[in-house]
Amino acid sequence: MAIELEASWLKVLDDEFNKDYMLKLKEFLKNEKQAGKTIYPKGSDIFNAFRHTPFNEVKVVILGQDPYHGAQQAHGLSFSVQKGVAVPPSLQNIYKELATDIPGFTIPKTGDLTQWAKQGVLLLNATLTVQAAEAGSHQKKGWEKFTDSVIKTISDKKEGVVFILWGNYAQSKSVLIDENKHLIIKSTHPSPLAVSRGGFFGSKPFSKTNAYLEKQGEKPIDWSIRD
After folding, report:
1. What residues contact residue 28 under an 8 Å CB cut-off, 6+ apart?
2. CB-based contacts of 39: which residues, under 8 Å, 6+ apart?
3. Catalytic site residue 66?
4. Choosing a second label site near 206 at 20 to 30 A (CA), which of 9, 90, 188, 222?
5. Cα-Cα-Cα-Cα dihedral of 10, 13, 17, 18, to 10°?
6. DSSP classification of residue 134
7. At what angle do helices 20-34 and 143-157 cross, to 10 degrees?
8. How many whole angstroms from its chain centre is CA 93?
């Protein structure tokens, strides 16, 4: 597992990579690969969220749990899939909410959210790798310690960041965030099962995010996705 973090992230997270849990995680991933197991996303994409969204530019964090475990889907950004891949159900629901929340938003054919990442939206999964066709297979191997440290570092070292926490798992991370310095937006998860229980549609996370950013004197996010 090559560590290819953007420079501003390395500056604030460098110590993490020498900690015991991270060395064990590297060993676990190496052994899985040597055993012939397919791991998603590919190695060069694991840290894509950090590459596209430098620490100094983080305005918004959207927290997911696991990468997608199907072929050609995951590319290191939560809820996002590679170009040319069918839009997953959770992202379809995110697009439906956007269409009612942001005037003029047109639902795109692509599920690639890189355009958000390049505007300061950190699309962070709690676990950064997964075995093909095995949902949750790399949970509790060390990734959560790393991403918890990422969330806490953003909270401690920055001000005025919006944290979008969908579902119970993401919301459990709110203990890492200083609500006096940042905005936390919570709702039901956009997955079809959770959406059916209500609470996601009509929650308006995207317009709330932009209103807060503008109040902080920041440029709002252009949520439109160009195919």
Report:
1. 138, 141, 142
2. 29, 32, 33, 129, 130, 131, 132, 138
3. yes
4. 9
5. 110
6. B
7. 140
8. 16
- Nearest CA among 201, 197, 219 for reference residue 210: 219
Q: How far apart are CA 197 and CA 103, in angstroms?
A: 26
Burial of 214 (0-12, 13-18, 19+ CB in 10 A): exposed
End-to-end CA distance of the chain: 31
d(CA 45, CA 93): 25
Copy the structure tokens of residue 35.
Answer: 């055993």
Please report which helix (H) or strand (E) contains residue 130, including its range.
strand 130-131
The string of pLDDT tens digits covering residues 28-58 is 999 999 999 999 999 999 999 999 999 999 9
Asked if 137 and 44 count as a contact pair (C-beta separation under 8 A), the reply is no
CA separation for the pair 221, 214 (Å, rounded): 10
Q: For residue 44, what are its two tokens?
A: 């060069």
Segment 150-200, tens digit of pLDDT: 999 999 999 999 999 999 999 999 999 999 999 999 999 999 999 998 999
Kindly state the tokens that stand for 214. 């503008």
66, 112, 156, 227: which is the annotated catalytic residue? 66
